[in-house]
Amino acid sequence: MSGLVHTEQLRGHRLVVVGAGRSGMAAARLGLALGAELRLLEADSQTLSEETKAALTAQGADIQLGKHVPEQFADADMVILSPGIPVRAVEGCFPKNRSFPVLSELELASWFVQEPIIAVTGSNGKTTTVGLIHHLLTRSGKTAFLGGNIGTPLSEYILGEERCEVLVLEVSSFQLQLSSSFHPRVGVLLNVSPNHLDYHADMEEYYQAKLKLFRHQDEQDVAILPLALKERLEAETWLKARRVYFVNRNAFSSPRLPGPHNQENMEAAYQASRAFGLSENQAAELFPEFQPEPHRTQQVLEKDGVLYVDDSKSTTPASLAMALQSFQRPILLLAGGRFKGGDLTELRGLIQEKVRAVGLFGESRELFSQAWEGLCPMFWKPSLEEAFAELNSLARSGDVLLLSPATSSFDLFRNYKERGQCFQEAVQAL
User: Which one, of 101, 107, 110, lies nearest residue 16 by Cα?
Assistant: First the structure.
């Protein structure tokens, strides 16, 4: 645990962690390592295995399962909320005049970071961009940790023994909203479009959460910002970091990263990596080697002239728009699921221009049907598999059959990965 100055920094403090997913568990373990009196709350009694409960209890943790109640927070000195749990979901249990802070796991872990951080946020493209930055840094000879909202929580890095020269973190609006001092050396804002409006009160709250990435930067730091938001961002006079606005220059290429949005992701990744000595020529040489994470405009198979593409990570209308702009071939579109917000009518022009037919599945049928009525043939099936089969019957050589749902997956699947895997299995069975 070489990342901690000493292990008694929370001795005598009651740390209440809400949510026992990977982030919550990492925060709980960090709290125990710091000597905190730990209470772990989890609404779903099936989340924790008996083995895990026994191990945490042996370390002194107080594990409470089921509905949250005021007594669980009455003696709290600090509350850590797992990502995806809105404050409003638990604040009814807080004392009326609470004195404890409510923080994210990212904020807690960041107190013990000594290495420079590159942190990336945005409505779309975060995972690809942090992957690109990590690729550029490690292939150019630096040691770099990749984590945060993608994969490994920062607390797990702090608890580990291995140290890196740079920490590359994907950070979400959930994590940022509950951060009070998080300070990246390089902060990257890719874009802002309607997202997580089932979590945030409105777009302004969502936007302000994103901007918290830069709140604690100073003149020695770098803020990588989209040129499209320059007018609005220039009004943020508190932003002290050196500002670098990026735009798609078509300066780079990578065979597995189609579309103008990926050009922007590569540009942002290069600008962030420049702060650590990477040249444009190096970036141009290294980008083509990059292997993106699955389910992000992933080309699964081409058979009989039809290209099958898994973009299950598309959970908003804005991300669907990016996927549609990535291909110059006629598109058969699979979409649908639990709607998170955004304006589907803004896609009417793209649907009319790019899409030959739409196969809908799961929830939100009416939203899609009303928004795109009359633009192209459209049908609905209850399951992804049924919609895929009917859509595939319409396919002809030269088409792209694209899964890009523009919704969350929680109507039919546990997560977007399971949804993408379902699609890939249907493709491989052809």
Answer: 101
Non-local CB neighbours of 203 within 8 Å, separated by 6+ positions: 194, 197
**Residues 14, 95 contacting (CB under 8 angstroms):** no
C-alpha distances (whole Å) from 258 to each of 55, 261, 358 are 46, 8, 21
Q: What pairing do the DSSP bridges indicate for beta strands 298-303 and 306-310?
A: antiparallel
Instruction: Tell me how far apart the alpha carbons of residues 307 and 309 are, in angstroms, rounded to a whole number.
Output: 6
Alpha-carbon distance 361 to 383, whole Å? 5
Mean pLDDT of the residues in the chain: 93
Band (pLDDT 50/70/90 cuts) for residue 193 is confident
14-100 is classed CATH 3.40.50.720: yes
**Separation CA 309–CA 247 (nearest Å):** 26
The identity of residue 285, as a single letter, is E
What are the residue boundaries of the structural domains of the chain, listed by start?
14-100, 108-289, 298-428
More confident residue, 123 or 301: 301
Going 325 to 327 to 329 to 330, the CA torsion angle's sign is negative
SS (H, E, C) 180-239: CCCCCCEEEECCCCCCCCCCCCCHHHHHHHHHHHHCCCCCCCEEEEEHHHHHHHHCCCCC
The 3-state DSSP class for residue 90 equals coil
Q: Does domain 298-428 have CATH number 3.40.50.880?
A: no
Using CB atoms within 10 Å of the CB of residue 161, give its burial: 0 to 12 exposed, 13 to 18 middle, 19+ buried. exposed
- Say which CATH class 108-289 falls into: alpha beta
Strands 78-81 and 242-246: unpaired
Lowest mean pLDDT among 9-13, 328-332, 382-386, 411-415: 9-13
Cβ burial, residue 229 (10 Å; 0-12/13-18/19+): middle
Helix pair angle (126-139, 260-274), 10° resolution: 50
Long-range contacts of 305-309 (CB under 8 A, 24+ apart): 305/396, 305/397, 305/398, 305/399, 306/392, 306/395, 306/396, 306/397, 306/398, 306/399, 306/400, 306/401, 307/399, 307/400, 307/401, 308/400, 308/401, 308/427, 309/400, 309/401, 309/402, 309/403, 309/404
Per the DSSP assignment, residues forming a β-bridge with 64 are 41
- SS3 label, residue 284: helix
